[in-house]
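re: ur msg from earlier - yeah i can do the heme C complex, just paste it... oh wait u already did. ok heres what im feeding in:
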Amino acid sequence: MMKVKMFNLLVLITFLIFLPRVNAANIGMYLKSAHGNATYGVNRNSMSGYSIGNCDHCHEMHASQNGVEPTPQNGSPSPFALFAPNFNTAKTTNPYTLSDNYCFYCHSTTTDGSVQVGGIDNHNFSYTFGGYTSSSVTGIYQMFNQASYHNLYDLHQFALGNAGSTTLPFSTFYKQQSNPCDTCHNPHIVRANKRNVSDPTYTPLSKPSDHNNLWGDDANETLAALTNAYQPPYYYGSTTTFEPDGAADTPSNQAAKMPDYITYCTDCHNTVNKIYSTTLGRELYEIDWFSDDGDKHGFRVADSDVGVGDTNTASLKRPYNGSPIANANGAGFVVSCMDCHEAHGSKHAYLIREEVNGKVMESIVNDYNLSELCRKCHMDDEAAYGRASGRNKWRYVHHRAPDAPYHGGGCGPCHGRFGGTGPDSCIKCHFHGGTDKVLGTMATKRRTF
Ligand code: HEC
Ligand code: HEC
Ligand code: HEC
Ligand code: HEC
Ligand code: HEC
Ligand code: HEC
Ligand code: HEC
Ligand code: HEC
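and the outut:
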């Protein structure tokens, strides 16, 4: 055992000489990281003799180790002495292959070709923190090859300052040769949250504005610290237990178990950065989660009173509506990005989760079928009237609820104008920052998201 450790140390020291940017503090964090872990850390199958967690599983100091180049064979030396190039910048959209991104080489299943001994199973948020263990993806590589995903090329351009990132200090750590995954993660300090889902000190995240530190590991970086109006969604299949670990604890105790994903995502998605999406072929909507003019799912309070016990006027389903869950500050809930979105990709559009508030999407969510998502937390006519025929119909919230926006008048000016009555029209009004201005003179100008 001792021998192995000595060897590890020697390699570290050699590295420090060759690559002086990793300092002592980082080494301490590395040893606590998922990659540096001596039991389950990095362990490439072509590197027998190297201890688990050794830097060399990722960095090849010379073109070869022990006289041969271990797989994957890559010929020329790579930037940062990695065993393969970081990112293929010619790949502007998915599908990706393993060689398009360095991390995929390990973060894939054995069947997909992982070079980590045994491959690595990583699951999406719906599975790991939502409890939906039937989710369809079992690796990061698979996640990025779905219908929607964080486009790696766009992240690369954004981080290089070529696409509207004005607020973030990317230039202090991100280079032409860098890996787009590293905009959100720091591979030298990432920790294994999947093994400790109740403990955010095991966060895998680093904010782009603070790349050299973890995000979520301090109490003031959890959802509990950000807002006392956060209500965690139900855990899959349950109406008594909550994310992220399926415990039946108070909202604030559950929130304290999660990194503050809102601050994390809005490090990039805010009202200042102009973010371009090659996938969507346009600039993204601004996300304003914090101001009084912002989104109602954010800190702006919903117009209708959807607070405690308000069973008549609210269109919300439990746990957002009625006892026993008290809205902590009585002023309106704040929803977290991860309550609706995945981080890496999804079979649904816009990275929408496979499972939301304890229930699975029964059909694919896209521009023509957004209501499948809304139904998880809001009352459709089935829930409002208790009739199966009202399933995924939305007359109650638009025409009948006490605060409904649309009353009287002819039906034609609205119905039939947006691709007909029915779910296909939702996204015309409901999107981040949206209003119903598409109605022109008939618009209420109410904020619709
Ligand atoms: C936009 C930010 C973002 C990008 C880009 C990103 N990640 Fe993540 N990643 C996250 C977040 C947030 C989580 C935690 C929530 C979760 O597990 O879904 C996470 C979790 C993970 C996990 C742990 C999953 C588990 O099993 O719990 C791994 C592994 C990972 N990311 C690898 C990658 C790799 C590899 C890439 C690039 C191909 C990448 N990430 C790109 C945000 C990002
Ligand atoms: C999981 C793979 C992995 C492991 C393990 C790993 N590194 Fe790295 N390292 C990377 C990647 C990827 C980069 C390139 C960062 C980027 O995208 O800009 C990098 C970059 C570096 C750099 C260049 C400066 C920087 O931070 O960008 C140094 C120095 C370094 N690593 C040292 C080490 C040392 C020392 C160890 C062991 C204590 C280690 N690495 C372990 C993946 C790894
Ligand atoms: C040499 C193989 C290897 C490479 C290359 C590699 N990883 Fe990992 N990674 C691992 C292993 C092993 C774990 C721990 C898995 C476990 O907990 O069982 C891990 C864990 C993680 C985690 C912690 C999440 C969790 O809960 O498991 C993140 C985040 C992560 N890796 C991101 C990255 C990123 C980003 C890159 C590319 C810059 C990368 N990894 C490259 C092997 C690798
Ligand atoms: C209540 C569910 C919900 C929550 C919470 C949520 N989103 Fe969304 N998000 C959606 C839906 C639905 C869409 C598709 C409509 C649209 O594009 O705005 C979307 C789209 C997006 C888009 C693409 C925007 C575009 O230009 O089409 C981004 C970026 C995004 N969300 C980021 C975030 C961030 C960051 C947060 C947290 C601050 C967040 N979302 C919270 C439901 C949600
Ligand atoms: C994860 C649960 C969740 C999902 C999914 C969700 N919402 Fe919400 N929504 C809420 C909560 C909670 C509030 C109340 C916010 C507050 O208290 O300020 C809300 C408020 C709203 C409001 C403001 C109502 C008012 O009276 O001002 C609208 C409009 C709305 N949601 C539309 C939608 C649409 C459309 C969808 C589907 C695309 C959707 N929501 C999906 C949880 C959700
Ligand atoms: C490092 C900056 C960065 C962070 C952090 C980040 N994003 Fe993004 N996001 C981007 C960029 C760049 C794009 C445009 C490329 C694309 O469309 O995939 C994007 C696109 C998106 C889209 C639209 C993708 C599509 O094709 O529909 C959604 C949804 C989204 N992000 C959600 C999130 C959520 C949720 C988080 C927090 C877990 C987050 N983002 C964190 C940079 C970031
Ligand atoms: C100012 C716009 C507007 C006017 C005028 C209007 N509606 Fe609606 N109505 C909506 C919207 C928006 C929805 C929800 C989206 C949808 O279901 O298409 C809706 C939904 C409905 C639904 C539920 C349909 C479903 O499948 O979900 C019925 C039924 C309905 N309206 C009937 C009427 C009738 C009857 C009239 C005329 C007396 C009328 N509406 C006038 C905007 C309007
Ligand atoms: C023509 C614009 C328009 C369309 C299309 C539309 N809505 Fe709405 N919707 C509104 C307006 C306006 C409100 C009221 C917002 C408020 O409460 O201030 C609303 C309210 C809601 C709410 C109520 C939130 C609450 O708790 O009060 C939900 C849920 C909702 N819509 C879902 C849908 C769904 C699902 C569809 C597609 C089937 C849809 N909407 C189509 C304009 C629209």
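cool cool. The pocket of heme C (ligand 1) is lined by residues 101, 103, 107, 122-125, 128, 140, 144, 150, 155, 181, 183-185, 193-194, 204-205, 343-344 (CB under 6 Å). ping me if u need the other ligands too
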